[in-house]
Design a protein that fits this description.
Residues 6-144, 179-317 form the EamA domain. It comes from Elaeis guineensis var. tenera (Oil palm). The chain crosses the membrane at residues 7-28, 34-56, 68-87, 99-117, 129-149, 177-197, 209-230, 242-262, 274-294, 300-319. The protein has 12 helices and 2 strands; from the N terminus they run ααααααβαααααβα. The chain has one domain (2-352). It has helices spanning 2-29, 34-57, 66-93, 96-103, 106-116, 127-148, 174-204, 208-230, 243-270, 272-275, 279-294, 300-352; strands at residues 153-154, 298-299. The radius of gyration is 23 Å and the shape is globular. The protein is 78% helix and 1% strand.
Length: 353
C-alpha cells in the first residue's frame, strides 16, 4: 500500500507540472516576463504554504538554526531560482513539448550527481551498471537530438487555439532554439543538483511543510531581486484578470506549494532518483495537450529526443532497481547464514558444558 501511494504521488506531480507548462507557455506567448512570472509564483507559493505549515507543523517542527537556514537559502538559489529562471527563458524560446522532453534528462543528471556525492554507486562490469551507463548515454543523445535536429513538423488539426496560443511563435530561429535548449540543460542540471542536496537538508530539518514554506520564502526574495535587475519597467509587473494571473496562481499554489511538499515526501520515502521516474508522464500529457488544445507545432526531433530520454530514464531506473533487489537478496542471505550459525552453535556449546 505504501508503494502504491508513492506511484500515485508521482503521477500527481507529473500531471501538475504538465498543466503548469501549458499555462506558463500561454502566458509567455502573451508577453509576460519570465522573471516576473518566477517572482509572483514564489510569492503566491509562500502565501499559500506558510499558513498551512504554521497550523500543521507548529509544534513538531525542529528549531531552525542559522546553519540550516543558510543551507536552505543556498539550496533554493541553486535548485529553485537558477532552475526556474533558466527554464522559463528556455521555455519561452522553444516549445512545451521540448521542455517536457528535457525533463527526462533529469534522472541521468541526478544519478551522475548522486554518484559524485556517493549516494549512488555504479559497477561497470555488472548488467545493472551497464544499464545505468547506457541510460545516461541515451539521455545525452536525446539532448543533442533536441538541440540540433528538428525534422518534419506535425501540424495540429485544431485551428481554434485555447488561451490565445499562437503556434507561429513556436517556429523559432535556430539560434534562439539552440539557446533555449542550452538554458533548459542548465536548468535541468540545477534541478538535479537541488534534488540531491535536498535529501541532505531534509535529514537535518525533516519538517517537510515548514521546509517548503522556507524554500518558497527564500525563493520569493531571491527572485524579486533577479526580476528587478531584468525588468525595470514596473508597468510590466501588473497582473490583470487574464492568463498571467491564472498561470502564476496555479504555479504558486500547485507547482510550487503542493508539488514541493509531495517531492519532499517522495525523496524521504524512495530517494532522489526514484522521484524522476514520473517525468515521461509529463511528456505524454504535454504532447497531447499541446497538440490537441493549443495547436502547437510539434517537430519530429522533439518526439525522437523524448523517446531517447525516456529510454535512458528507464535504463537508469532499471539498473537502480536491480541493484536494490541484489542488495536485499544479499542481506537476506547474510541473515539466514547468521541464523544457521547460531542454531549450530547452541548444541555445540551444550556439549562443552
Amino acid at each position: 500500500m505504501e508503494d502504491m501511494k508513492v506511484y500515485v504521488v508521482i503521477f500527481l506531480i507529473s500531471f501538475i507540472y504538465a498543466v503548469m507548462q501549458i499555462l506558463t507557455k500561454a502566458a509567455f506567448d502573451g508577453g509576460m516576463s519570465t522573471f516576473i512570472y518566477v517572482f509572483y509564483r514564489q510569492l503566491i507559493g509562500t502565501l499559500f504554504v506558510s499558513p498551512v505549515a504554521l497550523v500543521l507543523e507548529r509544534n513538531i517542527a525542529p528549531p531552525l538554526s542559522f546553519k540550516v537556514c543558510f543551507k536552505i537559502f543556498l539550496l533554493t538559489l541553486v535548485g529553485l531560482i537558477v532552475f526556474l529562471d533558466t527554464y522559463s527563458v528556455g521555455l519561452d524560446y522553444t516549445t512545451t513539448t521540448s521542455a517536457a522532453a528535457m525533463i527526462n534528462s533529469a534522472p541521468a543528471v541526478t544519478f551522475i550527481l548522486a554518484v559524485l556525492f556517493r549516494i549512488e554507486t555504479i559497477k561497470i562490469k555488472k548488467l545493472q551498471g551497464i544499464a545505468k551507463v547506457s541510460g545516461i548515454v541515451l539521455c545525452l543523445a536525446g539532448i543533442l537530438t533536441l538541440a540540433f535536429f528538428k525534422g518534419p513538423q506535425l501540424k495540429s488539426f485544431n485551428h481554434h487555439h485555447l488561451f490565445g496560443h499562437r503556434a507561429s511563435q513556436t517556429d523559432r530561429g535556430h539560434s534562439k532554439w539552440a539557446l533555449g535548449i542550452l538554458l533548459m540543460t542548465i536548468s535541468t542540471t540545477a534541478l538535479s543538483l537541488g534534488t540531491v542536496l535536498q535529501g541532505f537538508v531534509l535529514k537535518e530539518y525533516p519538517a517537510k511543510l515548514a521546509f517548503t514554506a522556507l524554500q518558497c520564502l527564500c525563493g520569493a526574495i531571491q527572485s524579486f531581486f533577479v526580476a528587478l535587475a531584468f525588468e525595470r519597467d514596473f508597468s510590466r509587473w501588473k497582473l490583470g484578470f487574464n492568463m498571467n494571473l491564472l498561470s502564476v496562481t496555479y504555479g504558486g499554489i500547485m507547482a510550487t506549494g503542493v508539488t514541493f511538499y509531495l517531492q519532499s515526501w517522495t525523496i524521504e520515502k524512495k530517494g532522489p532518483v526514484f522521484l524522476a521516474m514520473g517525468s515521461p508522464l509529463i511528456l505524454i500529457i504535454q504532447i497531447i495537450c499541446s497538440y490537441v488544445l493549443l495547436g502547437e507545432i510539434i517537430n519530429l526531433g522533439s518526439i525522437l529526443s523524448g523517446v531517447l530520454m525516456v529510454g535512458g530514464l528507464y535504463g537508469v531506473l532499471w539498473g537502480k532497481k536491480r541493484e536494490e533487489n541484489d542488495r536485499k537478496k544479499q542481506i537476506r542471505e547474510n541473515e539466514k547464514a547468521c541464523l544457521e550459525e547460531k542454531e549450530t552453535a547452541i548444541p555445540a556449546q551444550g556439549v562443552l558444558v
